[in-house]
Amino acid sequence: MSDDSIQKRLYDRFKTAPKGRALAFLDQSGNYAWSSFGDLYGTAREYAALLSSHGVSPGDVCILIPENDEFSTRNLLAVLILGAVPVCSSPPIVRGHHSNLKEVLEYLIRKTGARAVIASDTVAPLVEDLNKKKRSTQFLFGELKPGPGELQEVEPYMPAASDVIAYQLTSGTTGFPKVCVWTQQKVLVALDGMVDAMKLRRDDICVNWTPLYHDMGLMNNFALCMVQSVPLVMLSTFSFVKDPSSWLRALSETKATITWSPNFGYSITSNWVRDDQLVGIDLSSVRAFWNAAERIHIETIEEFQHRFEPYGVKPEAMKTNFGMAENVGGATFSDPDGLFQSERIDPEILFEKSVAKTVDSPETGIPAVGVGRAYPGLTIKILSRTLKELPDGHVG
Known about the structure:
Blueprint: H1 6-16, E1 21-26, E2 32-36, H2 37-53, E3 61-64, H3 70-82, E4 85-88, H4 92-95, H5 101-112, E5 116-119, H6 128-131, E6 138-141, E7 164-169, E8 179-183, H7 184-198, E9 206-208, H8 215-228, E10 232-234, H9 237-242, H10 245-254, E11 258-261, H11 263-272, E12 288-291, H12 298-308, E13 318-323, E14 330-333, E15 342-345, H13 347-353, E16 366-369, E17 373-374, E18 382-383, E19 389-390
Helix pairs in contact: 1-2, 2-3, 11-12
């Protein structure tokens, strides 16, 4: 549909299921406090009006430094409702003591012409020098107050399919992060493809600890669940790393059916969680533990499944996926109803001829985990450095 957009789909969800469970966060009592779609839309729309009063308009780029909390999710939805274009950057704690957040923000402001930087108060001291430059970019920290004049209610903006919905940073693991441009059409195709490939259902419940500044957290979890009316439980990324058992408790207590993690998340959960932390845990409702975002190790998957098999984790629940920011989230998915595939590759042929040839002996060869098939409608090609199409099994 030419008038289809993320904003339209979000508005339809908020309108048709206002009392449905949308987002949950852990409260101070250790309980999951749910917000309905109606409540979520109401608070986000109010915040969109506040952003508008501070001069943010449809099409303006807004840099967000999100954490997995109510403040950040409300900000993100408000930016979308307003028709502005979000770009998320990781908070300084991820970048360590010698944070380069200031340099990243300078780059993003210069690259995108951002109208506003929106973040919590904790970020303000790190970018104080940027704020002093009196450029056209506004720095909005913490809870906002209405700007000059009366606060005007804003109507949800309905963009065209060709409009840019967001800019997304690549991981930057091998260099400075680059900016990917996501159009409405590209994002909608990706989300629809993920729904089909995962066999996502309206009765699914998702638990997510992966960060919103990463496309796994932003698209594979937050956006997908919002537009599909799938209840989403948001956990703090930092809390998970400190205590991986919090992920398992959330899955058990909410009877979640799907969840995502990079390979390292499964590894630290298998190795750091103590037996006494597993009392009362039941993971039998989880039909899909999706593994993606970095190289997947067969040993990690097997270790996780065997460790938590007594708590209900079935072999067929372990799933694999491949995706990238350039493609908007997930691109390939293993069988949603069966086992993922794996094989062993002859190392000599691989490194000498750049060809992946399987070997029969389980004692030799490099283990390779299959990441499934492309979602419906997506074509994947292997290309040489000169952009010549290569056969299956060749390194491109």
